[in-house]
Write a structure and sequence with these properties.
Elements (H helix, E strand, L loop, with lengths): L28 H4 L5 E2 L4 E5 L5 H7 L3 H7 L6 H16 L4 E7 L7 E9 L4 E8 L8 H17 L3 E7 L3 H9 L4 E11 L2 E11 L3
Helix pairs in contact: 2-4
Length: about 210
């Protein structure tokens, strides 16, 4: 009698590939955090944007200096309310974190500090900022950047943060260096403004600085 052939057991499916480099910040970490608020020595407060800040956003996007350096589209008040709601959603989408600079005793925003282009996997992000005339001259942006830099490194867990600005904007350069962001170099013809292409300064800090 001929023995029946022995059928080998089916091969186990291959193990799924694993990433050799884990994400610097796990997905979901930022969305699980509550966006913090901070009182600054200059008398302003960093807090999330609220719908009642819409008139300030309309005024900012019509301000000549802000328009020149940041290139925003003009907004109606209704569009500003929609924009603010979208900014709040971006926290949960882990794509950006946007704070209002506002009087500590209440009132509408007078400026913004935003951590944009957040890459949790790569551990990086880019700060941008502007101030309406009512908020200028007190050092609020540098104070706010220093506080939010500590948050981005210690609480969120990013590794590298950067600031870019036109080389023709020395005020922004002063804010960056005052906040501890050394100049790393110049990016030629990096951003198109109304008056043509501008070279951009690149400032950056890393978590071990």
């Amino acid at each position: 009698m001929t023995a029946a052939p022995i059928t080998p057991p089916p091969a186990s499916p291959p193990a799924p590939p694993t990433d050799s480099i884990p994400p610097v910040v796990p997905a979901g970490r930022m969305a699980a955090l509550t966006q913090p608020s901070y009182d600054l020595p200059c008398g302003l407060r960093l807090r999330p944007w609220e719908p009642y800040d819409a008139p300030a956003l309309v005024a900012a996007y019509a301000d000549p200096d802000i328009r020149h350096w940041n290139r925003p589209d003009r907004l109606t008040e209704e569009q500003a309310v929609t924009r603010i709601a979208r900014w709040r959603e971006r926290w949960h989408a882990e794509s950006s974190a946007i704070w209002a600079l506002a009087p500590a005793d209440g009132g509408c925003a007078v400026g913004v500090i935003a951590l944009a282009d957040i890459d949790l996997r790569g551990g990086s992000g880019e700060f941008m900022y502007w101030l309406l005339p009512a908020g200028r001259g007190a050092g609020a942006t540098a104070e706010g950047l220093s506080v939010l830099t500590r948050w981005a490194f210690a609480e969120l867990g990013l590794h590298r943060l950067r600031i870019t600005h036109s080389t023709a904007n020395p005020a922004s350069c002063h804010v960056a260096t005052t906040s501890g962001y050394p100049l790393e170099g110049t990016m030629r013809g990096a951003l198109l403004h109304a008056d043509g292409w501008h070279d951009e300064h690149l400032h950056a800090r890393i978590s071990t600085d």
